[in-house]
């Protein structure tokens, strides 16, 4: 697929994550008239219509019927109810491409909910998709064609980096690192902002210095050939102030804390796969 392919994409559920994806897609040039969304309550839909000019409905069946590609975007615990309802009311689900962005739930579950004949791609996106800086992990079932995979790659390329995975298990890890990752960074940034405020800065200045520092560090990490440790060392003058700050993080075993956080999130993904 060299020219950009357009299929009508219907998001079932219009919460934070699908808003980030569809917002990023439309900002990136995907035609709004081929993007649809459903949600039980109206306010989010009104906002999406106003902001992006897409068609919305409170009726999941209508959106699923109109879509070539159905993006299941509800919480994992609602997935069974929503899918079984679609299976009962939407004809030809096996002729559409289904994409699920839910954490945890495995291919086998969707076949149970929607039928064995569906074609499914699982995606683990993250919210920076809204600003074109997302990470989307993708894994396809055996029925997805090359054209399906190319199309989904194209869609998620609009909103950032796409990473195809060979094994379904890997999406739990990618989710725990990149899907949840923005929350970890925000938490860390919040801590730095609080520190600056407690040491005399007002909230606005504190936030400005933290967000610009995070942006600068992320840009350097993206643009440099050096390892992250080398980049860290460049800031850490011998006998200087950074060394003292880093020492505090190292004494608190920040690297180990990150590993424990990722392991906890992976474990929850595995647990959700069994629970829902
Ligand atoms: N947020 C993130 O960073 C990421 C989320 N995900 C996955 O994305 C999915 C959605 O998460 P997120 O957007 O954050 O969740 P939100 O809680 O922001 O949104 C969930 C949405 O689903 C709607 N909803 C509830 N019941 C139904 C229904 N029966 N039919 C259609 N829509 C319904 C809710 O509507 P209402 O408000 O009216 O109740 C709400 O708008 C989850 O499965 C999550 O695992 C994946 C990667 C990252
Ligand atoms: O917290 C969650 O379960 C979802 C998946 C990754 C980010 N948010």
TrEMBL record:
Residues in Pyrroline-5-carboxylate reductase dimerisation domain copies: 168-272
GO molecular function: pyrroline-5-carboxylate reductase activity
Pfam family, one: P5CR_dimer
Domain Pyrroline-5-carboxylate reductase catalytic N-terminal: 8-104
Keyword Nucleus applies: no
Domain of life the protein comes from: Bacteria
Keyword Signal belongs to the record: no
Annotated catalysed reactions: L-proline + NAD(+) = (S)-1-pyrroline-5-carboxylate + NADH + 2 H(+); L-proline + NADP(+) = (S)-1-pyrroline-5-carboxylate + NADPH + 2 H(+)
UniProt entry keywords in alphabetical sequence: Amino-acid biosynthesis, Cytoplasm, NADP, Oxidoreductase, Proline biosynthesis
GO cellular component, as recorded: cytoplasm
Pathway listed: Amino-acid biosynthesis; L-proline biosynthesis; L-proline from L-glutamate 5-semialdehyde: step 1/1
Enzyme Commission code(s) on record: 1.5.1.2
Class of enzymatic activity (EC top level): oxidoreductase
GO biological process, one term: L-proline biosynthetic process
Annotated positions binding NADPH: 60
Annotated compartments: Cytoplasm
Alphabetized InterPro entries for the sequence: 6-PGluconate_DH-like_C_sf, NAD(P)-bd_dom_sf, P5C_Rdtase_cat_N, P5CR_dimer, Pyrroline-COOH_reductase
Cross-referenced PANTHER family: PYRROLINE-5-CARBOXYLATE REDUCTASE, PYRROLINE-5-CARBOXYLATE REDUCTASE 3
Purpose of the protein: Catalyzes the reduction of 1-pyrroline-5-carboxylate (PCA) to L-proline.
Similarity section: Belongs to the pyrroline-5-carboxylate reductase family.
NCBIfam families the UniProt entry points to: proC
Name recorded for this polypeptide: Pyrroline-5-carboxylate reductase
Organism name: Aliidiomarina sanyensis
């Amino acid at each position: 697929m060299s020219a950009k392919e357009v299929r009508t994409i219907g998001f079932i559920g219009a919460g934070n994550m699908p808003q980030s994806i569809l917002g990023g897609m439309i900002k990136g040039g995907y035609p709004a008239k081929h993007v649809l969304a459903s949600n039980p309550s109206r306010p989010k839909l009104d906002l999406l219509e106003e902001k992006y000019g897409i068609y919305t409905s409170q009726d999941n069946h209508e959106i699923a019927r109109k879509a070539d590609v159905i993006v299941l975007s509800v919480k994992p615990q609602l997935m069974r109810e929503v899918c079984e309802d679609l299976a009962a009311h939407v004809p030809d689900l096996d002729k559409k491409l289904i994409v699920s962005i839910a954490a945890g739930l495995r291919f086998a579950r969707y076949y149970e909910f929607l039928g064995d004949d569906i074609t499914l791609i699982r995606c683990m996106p993250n919210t920076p998709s809204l600003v074109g800086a997302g990470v989307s992990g993708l894994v396809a079932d055996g029925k997805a064609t090359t054209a399906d995979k190319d199309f989904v790659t194209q869609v998620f390329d609009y909103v950032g980096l796409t990473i195809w995975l060979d094994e379904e298990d890997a999406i739990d890890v990618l989710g725990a690192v990149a899907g949840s990752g923005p929350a970890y960074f925000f938490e860390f940034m919040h801590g730095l902002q609080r520190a600056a405020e407690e040491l005399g800065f007002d909230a606005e200045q504190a936030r400005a210095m933290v967000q610009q520092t995070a942006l600068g560090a992320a840009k350097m990490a993206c643009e440099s050939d050096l390892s992250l440790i080398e980049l860290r060392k460049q800031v850490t003058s011998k006998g200087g102030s950074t060394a003292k700050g880093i020492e505090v993080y190292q004494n608190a075993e920040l690297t180990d804390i990150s590993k424990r956080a990722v392991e906890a999130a992976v474990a929850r993904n595995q647990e959700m796969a069994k629970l829902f």
